[in-house]
From TrEMBL:
InterPro entries: 23S_rRNA-intervening_sequence, 23S_rRNA_IVS_sf. Gene3D superfamilies: 23S rRNA-intervening sequence (1.20.1440.60). NCBIfam families: four helix bundle protein. This is Four helix bundle protein.
Length: 120
């Protein structure tokens, strides 16, 4: 089986783990949120890795960087959803801090990856 370049990226691996953690987290959200916050946070967290994968298939550094920027934007959207989940008391402060730290690390890595791609 072929291993694609995006699968080797530590940033993508962290995005993959985050997506799994988010999917497990939202299982405890109220059922009436299934088409609201639950759906939104699942989509935004999935999009982080999706954009990294899609961008890895682009030819130019500028195109690759664009998809990393979209991935970063999805991470920021996910942070907003985590804040909302905490405000609505769907998650506690400890869970909020844990996810916030994961997302802070991921956004820093995305910024570093974007800068490295554009240097080439």
């Amino acid at each position: 089986m072929h291993i694609y370049s995006f699968e080797k990226l530590e940033t993508w691996q962290k995005a993959r783990t985050l997506r799994k953690d988010i999917y497990l987290l939202v299982k405890k959200f109220p059922k009436d949120e299934i088409f609201g916050l639950t759906s939104q946070i699942k989509r935004s967290s999935s999009s982080i890795g999706d954009c990294l994968a899609e961008g890895s298939a682009r030819i130019t550094p500028k195109d690759k960087a664009h998809f990393i920027t979209m991935s970063y934007s999805s991470a920021i959207e996910t942070i907003n959803h985590i804040i909302g989940a905490c405000d609505l008391e769907y998650i506690n402060e400890e869970e909020y801090i844990s996810f916030r730290l994961k997302l802070d690390e991921l956004t820093n890595k995305l910024n570093a990856l974007r800068k490295a791609i554009l240097k080439n």
